[in-house]
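Subject: Sanity check before I submit

Could someone independently write out the structure tokens for this chain? I want to compare against mine line by line before I put it in a report. The sequence has 393 residues.
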Amino acid sequence: MFDDYLSRHLARGNRNLLLTGLLLLVGVAALFGLHARYWYNFRHGPFALADSDLARMTDPLAQTNKRWVTFECKRVPVAIGTSRVEGQKASTQYYHYVPLGFRLHRVLSPAPKGAKPDTRPATEAEIAAAKAYFGKHNKLPEDILPEATKAVLLRVPREVKEPGRFTGELRAITREERTKLELDQVTELLPVLISVDNYRLGGYLGLGFGALFVLIGLGCVVTALGRIGSRERHWTCRLLSRYGRAEDLATSLMVEVGSDGTRREIGPNVVTSRWVARPRFTGLDVMPLDDVLWAYEKVVQRRVNFVPAGKEFAAVLADRTGRLLELGGKQSQVEELLAEVFGRRPWILPGYSDELDVMYRRQRDELARIVDQRRAELERRPGDRVETPSQDG
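---
Independent answer below. Compare away.
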């Protein structure tokens, strides 16, 4: 049977892992749900959108969910401005005015160059005559002036000089675009534009990241449920098995944690006669003191934009199996923790050096022999005899 202390941390770790997995799955589902319109267009678009259909819409964004469209531009778009898009690869976007429908006016009197002439709406007879004239000469009579009734803005990565088919996103004109292009006086302009770009690129990235987070979430849920059904599968229990029989070591840990005489809490760390324990997000990290060969303080200088921004401190315990246990905290806590470890096991080699690092990585058995020799010498000294707790606690 596993002791209550270990069971409590295993249950907490499994709960945290399960909740993390569920939150990831719910988060991905919520994000996809919030952008359901985009995914509808991603899956079924682009949709054909005639200029006549667009001209009849009073509010195109409210009257259709079809935002990724193919637009057949039958007239030459008029360039009205550009914008610079900054980024890793800066680019220029070109804005074009595309008329969708016209109303014909009869010119009553000519006007100076650059001024607007005096006009009135053309009669049905004048419109019929103008159409007949256009059919013969491919242009309107000089006394007939066309005036756009509806127009749309086209945003493309290059300047357009002839009619054509464009595929892009139907979106609202931003306040910045309206101000920069001075569109407030263009009353016939619809409050939308067609932005020609790679509409599906964001979707492919979203699918990739979404699939990754779903796999991580499912992995967390499956792992947590598996550990709940079989505690021996938990990484803390497998860690205990490195040092002996997990159930026996768990009982030893329970006895010492519940003993007022040996337990010492230093920040989140717990030190007993035989153990160092540190709760983690998904379990409990433990290491037997008798297996520790080497311990030192680790200091990392943090920098933000190459400017020093404080230091991080940690106690590092290196055991016989090649495992390094890093216990971070405030500098005072780290120093107190190391002092407690060295006080309980004075034969542990203290302090960092390159020679010890190389020896630990390449000649760990020789390092263990040196530590065992130090222990034997300390235990033989009558005045410095170290009492080692018996296995029954």
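---
OP: Matches mine. For the report I'm noting this point. DSSP finds twelve helices and 16 strands in the chain.
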